[in-house]
Amino acid sequence: MILFPAIDLKDGACVRLEQGDMARATVFNHDPAAQAHAFESSGFRHLHIVDLDGAFAGKPMNVAAVDRILDTVGLCVQLGGGIRDMATIEGWLDKGVNRVIIGTAAVRDPALVKEAAKAFPKRIAVGLDARDGKVAVQGWAETSELAALEIARRFEDAGVSAIIYTDIARDGLLKGLNLDATIGLADAISIPVIASGGLASIEDVKRLMEPRAKKLEGATMPARRCACCGRRGRRSYAPGFFSTRRVTPEYRSLRHSTRVSMRSRRRIVSNPAAMPSASAA
Ligand code: AMZ
Fold first, then answer.
1. Cα(48) to centroid of ligand 1, in Å?
2. Is the Cα torsion angle 39, 42, 45, 46 positive or negative in sign?
3. What is the pLDDT of residues 36-76, one digit of tens each?
4. Hey, is 47 helix, strand or coil?
5. Could you confirm whether 67 is annotated as catalytic?
6. Beta bridge partners of 18
7. Which atom of ligand 1 is closest in space to residue 101's alpha carbon?
8. Which residues approach ligand 1 with their CB closer than 6 A?
9. Which domains occur in the chain, in start order?
10. Residues near 91 by Cβ (< 8 Å), separated by ≥ 6?
11. Model's pTM, two decimal places?
12. Mean pLDDT of 88-105
């Protein structure tokens, strides 16, 4: 069972949306690469990234943030949001994304998914995000007439490596996974299914380990705390509040010190040799 810690990107920052609503965004880290690094340091091996602006715009929008994550960590990365054509799929895979997630195009252009899965075996996943039983598209701003199972069946023999199933009603609320619906989908198809939306506690993880969930490949896990200082995310875009370029124990201890100016902190991050001694700080 794989846990995929998640980074959802909005305007270059890591956010958590409630039920996919861009107006209900909690920023928990202004530095996605630092957040990814924190996940890697905690022992995770995989990372789930969503370019939220990309999902709405229909093309990649947080390219710089994703590039920095790819440069920073060696995690096995799956990425979704705004991936709607072969050129974009190839572009991300060339850059080092291990697996791309296709949502809207899986509903509107299933031939693209089939072509991509043939060209890039094991590197194409389908994201199915359900609201009231129907799959939502375009950043979840629109709802299709199709159920997740109907769409999943289209790809049974296409070589799709996983279906990532999100229950929109639970997403971002930290109230627990909808395991019944996810297991129901997994039992009805042969493609591995990943549960998404709502994982809240170790209890969810334990439920994922139960025999009835054995067909699930894993679950995505929302970040809850700032990678730098452990504080909970804030409903604000205060620039710099969570910005760290490299999170070291020394930097963490300096960050909240009133005796080190913001400018010195930045200098320390870009040049660790400028770090004052513990007594000076
Ligand atoms: O939270 C949202 N509003 C949202 C979201 N998390 N909208 C889309 N997505 C994710 C899907 C999937 O991983 O869960 O974006 C990906 C699909 O993007 P697209 O552009 O292919 O539909």
1. 11
2. negative
3. 999 999 999 999 999 999 999 999 999 999 999 999 999 99
4. strand
5. no
6. 21
7. 13
8. 17, 20, 50, 52, 55, 80-83, 101-105, 127, 129, 137, 139-140, 166
9. 2-246 (3.20.20.70)
10. none
11. 0.82
12. 98
